[in-house]
Amino acid sequence: MGVYKNDIKAIVAAESNADLRKIGEKVFANERLTFEEGVMLFEKASLSYTGALANWVREQKHGDNTYFNRNFHIEPTNVCVFSCKFCAYSKLYANKEEGWELTIQQMLDIVKSYDGKPVTEVHIVGGVHPKMNLEFFVDLLKAIKAHRPELHIKAFTPVELDYMFRKAKVSVEEGMRIAHEAGLDSLPGGGAEIFHPEIRTQICEDKVDADGWLHIHKATHQLGMHSNATLLYGHIEKYWHRVDHMERLRQLQDETHGFNTFIPLKFRNMDNDMSNVPEVSIIEDMKMYAVSRLYLDNFPHIKAYWPMLGRNNAQLMLNFGVNDIDGTIDDTTKIYSMAGSEEQSPSMSTAELVALIKQAGRKPIERDTLYNVLTDYSVVEVEELV
Questions:
Q1: Helix (DSSP H) and strand (DSSP E) numbers for the chain
Q2: What angle, rounded to 10 degrees, do the helices at 134-147 and 104-112 form?
Q3: What does pTM read for this prediction?
Q4: Among 45, 62, 79, where does a domain finish?
């Protein structure tokens, strides 16, 4: 794409701030950034400097390859026992008007609607419903696997799993074993929000804390499964809260090597209890993605979730450290559209995703959930529009 060795050397050498120049030299030398350096990038570095460094790292790891998959979402319910202030999606169990509750058969029917289509992943997340317990979801997992064994099931945030395990009176390790044996293949990254209790107690006090979230992902990795990680940015947190969050993820990744992807999620303020908090600018979005690529040196991939950012903004992030833009989605998720995300009907065909990536001068690579390459669309034409 554009940042070559001599270019990055010249960019670093031209930086007038000695501390920022040192950071650039460390990035070029593949040395780990400190907590303080992560905060400094947010507070003092220009977007052009941080972006150039992030793009350099991205291209060292992946060249121009940009990944996506063919997936669809199932949201079992938006009825929830928790009351996160940033959430415009869930309806409290005690006041569940406008809520939905899908049966196992209804969810299996959604899976069956993709029979004969080349999707590789079903993504299942939703509210925490007191009637949808571990036994219920074990039955769902088994039903999906019985119908379509090769379909990768990426499902349940630690928020959902923690509630299931506590209600079933099983340990995290035992609960994860049960779910995995029933058909669970990997975990998404949701529910992380901001780890630090100073912020977490203000925006999502009643759900699983940072240690609990990390414990569930660690247990997942110890079973040989992979997972993703997220961070909710752009609300009441400070820059150092973001770096603290990434530091905890980086430490666990050093230990388990089980995370595939980091996904910064932009706070959206429509129809929730934080509507008074203004949303951050696209400049702040680019900064967040760039710094995450530089700080999370042991994470293979950085993903821009296009239904939240919008397809054009996600395309822009491909120059700021991002090498993945998720998947086809197929208009099956409401979690972010209900909060005012850019995409109110999130669905893109394979052909549209390929075109989006090519327009950014990158190579579109269809992957499976674990980043095995399925089709390189830089050399193969898209034959259908699924």
A1: 15, 13
A2: 30
A3: 0.90
A4: 62
